[in-house]
């Protein structure tokens, strides 16, 4: 278990993460650095601030200063997006709050082509329950009980063995705390990867090893898991590579104690060109058969991604990605007509903001203290035209608890359910009305079912319609109407109107 839970330790980690890649010293003078301070004001009227069957109306004001940093070239690269949200509720003043929200990642090349140091951090307040009354991306999610904090540092060695063999050795220390649902915990991960794809002409080899230790603060036990494999690859054609592996896996996730098993698997990679790829792998593991399927295709104006996975999972892997991150890369890939990476990044973030996706769930990202076996199927499509941007996302997730003795809160979804199934879809459209104005519409729906000591079935539908306009060279405004309806055990309906004004300096 964790021997020290000093909150200043996390603060020091955050400062170190900033120093490693998120806030580069003296970078203001470099042309490949973007520094964008700003402030955003938001006024919202909702007829159901409590999201209850008989809701109360409220008027909410928010003033949020922010800063965005990005550096994409040189030995120091990374991005940082931070804000100080100040939220005032007119009628229910006890809900008023101020808090920091940020996410960032960076990488520093400490020794050229040899030693790299990665840093990742995020702080957010999102309803992390699969059955929450608001989706994890709803801007009215401001309850301090939902705050989660994640930080990680990871030095990485990259090296060569002979003329064609390559290797990486990586250690990551990750800290996760906050939220009244989970314990504070530290996860230490060692990974070693060796490969030589051309050792004997078309025949190659690879070796992978990972060791994870998770220490829970106040928990009666810690968790460890190991997985090692050795495999061969064969280049059938210039576009197709076949793979096969054998290995050994062990963990103590189960209450019955430590378990071990020999693993074996096979797969292939198909890369017909620089814009299209397909990778598929299946393995016989401790929990049964695992799957990892990924397909991607992009053109100058569109991007398509398909994925299917079945593997162990934990909250650490779910809370690091926001809804903006989820759609940003998809839209970025569809902007192939923009050659400058900084302009392309700015355009992608602008379109994510214009699509009006706040309040829609696009993945099942609830937190839990237990390890889970997760099955995830997802498809995403983005098209960017001259006047229109369209994104479509469909997903289906199954999460099964593995370590019920680690649950410490009745608010943990797995305190009541052994299996949680979630499926959903979203459709978002942004249409440019003129050089300065655009209209956007969004429709999303999710359905969540819980099975266990009790059963639960919940469905949420969200619709929004809005307009936005550039008011000046560095200012913009928007007006959005949003309607959401939830059916099931906690049924409610909400209508909200939001006006925003944003300034960039």
Automatic annotation (TrEMBL):
Q: Mind listing the UniProt keywords for this protein, alphabetically? A: Signal
From the UniProt annotation, give the residues forming the signal peptide.
1-29
Instruction: Fetch the InterPro entries from UniProt.
Output: CHP03016_PEP-CTERM
> Which domain of life does this protein belong to?
Bacteria
Q: What is this protein called?
A: TIGR03016 family PEP-CTERM system-associated outer membrane protein
Q: Which organism is it from?
A: Nitrogeniibacter mangrovi
């Amino acid at each position: 278990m964790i021997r020290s839970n000093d909150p200043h330790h996390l603060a020091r980690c955050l400062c170190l993460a900033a120093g490693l890649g998120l806030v580069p010293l003296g970078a203001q003078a470099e042309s490949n650095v973007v520094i964008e301070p700003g402030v955003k004001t938001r006024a919202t009227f909702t007829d159901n601030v409590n999201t209850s069957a008989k809701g109360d109306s409220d008027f909410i004001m928010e003033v949020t200063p922010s800063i965005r940093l990005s550096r994409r070239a040189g030995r120091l690269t990374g991005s940082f997006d931070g804000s100080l949200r100040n939220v005032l509720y007119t009628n229910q003043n006890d809900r008023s709050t101020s808090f920091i929200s940020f996410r960032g990642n960076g990488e520093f090349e400490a020794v050229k082509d040899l030693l790299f140091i990665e840093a990742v951090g995020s702080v957010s307040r999102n309803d992390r329950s699969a059955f929450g009354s608001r989706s994890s991306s709803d801007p009215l999610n401001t309850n301090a009980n939902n705050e989660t904090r994640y930080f990680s540092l990871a030095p990485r060695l990259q090296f060569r063995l002979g003329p064609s063999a390559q290797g990486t050795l990586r250690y990551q220390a990750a800290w996760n705390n906050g939220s009244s649902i989970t314990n504070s915990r530290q996860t230490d991960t060692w990974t070693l990867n060796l490969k030589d794809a051309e050792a004997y002409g078309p025949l190659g080899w690879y070796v992978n090893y990972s060791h994870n230790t998770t220490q829970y603060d106040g928990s009666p036990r810690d968790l460890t898991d190991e997985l090692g494999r050795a495999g061969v690859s064969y280049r059938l054609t210039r576009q197709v590579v076949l793979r096969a592996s054998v290995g050994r896996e062990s963990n103590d996730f189960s209450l019955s104690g430590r378990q071990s098993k020999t693993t074996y698997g096979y797969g292939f990679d198909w890369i017909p060109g620089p814009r299209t790829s397909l990778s598929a792998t299946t393995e016989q593991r401790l929990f049964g058969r695992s799957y990892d399927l990924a397909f991607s295709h992009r053109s100058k104006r569109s991007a398509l991604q398909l994925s299917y996975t079945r593997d162990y999972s934990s909250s650490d892997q779910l809370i690091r990605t926001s809804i903006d991150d989820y759609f940003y890369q998809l839209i970025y890939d569809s902007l192939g007509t923009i050659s400058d990476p900084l302009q392309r990044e700015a355009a992608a973030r602008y379109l994510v903001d214009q699509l009006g996706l706040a309040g829609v769930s696009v993945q099942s990202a609830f937190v839990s203290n237990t390890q889970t076996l997760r099955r995830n199927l997802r498809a995403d499509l983005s098209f960017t035209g001259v006047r229109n941007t369209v994104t479509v996302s469909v997903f289906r997730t199954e999460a099964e608890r593995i370590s019920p003795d680690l649950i410490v809160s009745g608010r943990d979804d797995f305190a009541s359910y052994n299996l949680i199934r979630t499926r959903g879809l979203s459709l978002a459209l942004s249409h440019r009305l003129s050089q300065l104005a655009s209209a956007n519409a969004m429709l999303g729906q999710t359905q969540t079912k819980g099975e266990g000591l009790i059963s639960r079935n919940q469905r949420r539908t969200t619709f929004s319609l809005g307009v936005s306009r550039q008011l000046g060279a560095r200012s913009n405004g928007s007006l959005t109407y949003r309607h959401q309806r939830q059916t099931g055990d906690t049924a409610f309906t909400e209508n909200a109107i939001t006006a925003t004004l944003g300034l960039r300096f």
